[in-house]
Amino acid sequence: MNTGITAINEEVHRSSAFIRPLFSELSKVVIGQNYLMERLIISMLADGHILLEGVPGLAKTLTVKSLAACLNIKFSRIQFTPDMLPADVVGTQIYDGRSAGFTTRKGPIFANLVLADEINRAPAKVQSALLEAMQEKQVTLGDATHRLDEPFLVMATQNPIEQEGTYPLPEAQVDRFMLKLRIDYPSRQEERQILDLMARTGQLPETTPVVDVASILNARKVINEIYMDDKVKDYVVDLVCATRNPGEYRIRVGEFIQMGASPRATIALTLAAKAFAFIKGRGYVTPQDVKSVGMDVLRHRVAITYEAEAEQKTSETVIQQIFDELPVP
Length: 329
Description:
Helix 11 crosses helix 12. With 329 residues, the chain is an alpha/beta fold. It has a five-stranded parallel sheet. The chain is globular and about 70 Å long. Strand 3 (91-96) and strand 4 (101-106) form a beta hairpin. The chain has two domains: 19-203, P-loop containing nucleotide triphosphate hydrolases (Rossmann fold); 227-325, Magnesium chelatase subunit I, C-Terminal domain (Helicase, Ruva Protein, domain 3, Orthogonal Bundle), CATH 1.10.8. It has helices spanning 2-15, 19-27, 34-46, 60-71, 87-90, 124-136, 171-174, 188-198, 213-225, 230-242, 263-279, 287-298, 306-310, 315-325; strands spanning 50-53, 75-79, 91-96, 101-106, 113-117, 138-141, 144-147, 153-158, 179-182, 257-259, 303-304.
């Protein structure tokens, strides 16, 4: 077993060589969002999607666009509005009178990195069209089904302040996001760096490609081989099960949980922990890796009760209590 771990460690060391140059290149443009950049790369490597909650102006678009430039892949941004139609996202078929047939015009979803801005402003039909693309990695236009190019990552944003004219995302769609992030304002020192870097007209810094798609797809194969001990696997399962039946683990939060995490959480937590270990240059997963990404995987999958809201508890405080009280292997 030790020989196998040594081999995968060496393979991870070789195939993750692009991680440091990638962070370095992103840092030329994005200041103070290391958490966001790290989670974006984790999602890219683990083949998942991100739901991001944060006030406007926190470099969400800039970060995703810069990552696409570093990978030399196609980026598109969709600004969701209440009057949108599914065709505005996935495209449509247009009748051509000269050929007496239909031609396909692909929408902005046909990209590698898609920023879905203010996704909760989109009506249900638009959200369901996006859901097929996210889950099935394909789009149906008329009678034809079109596969989306790999890698394919959707980063959707929600404004936590302004709720007027928005449509709450259904639980089935929220569950499709591997991670949900909450980002806050930069520190004063970071804000000062942003001023020096960005407060100029027509001279914004740019990134250059440092990684190719083949390296990302190869990294995904390596991540699948990263070693996870049975005790760590049991820890992942116990974490997810504790959100459904906390009483079985003697954790007193049952009255605060309306709905626990789904089996998708178990899969997402495993893949995200492996990707986290990969970017740290390790060929094995530790319980701390699981805890590092656990909140991002679970915060949108655990629904709390009215009793929890009355006591000013959030899903995060409930999940944190589970992390604190569940024995770590």
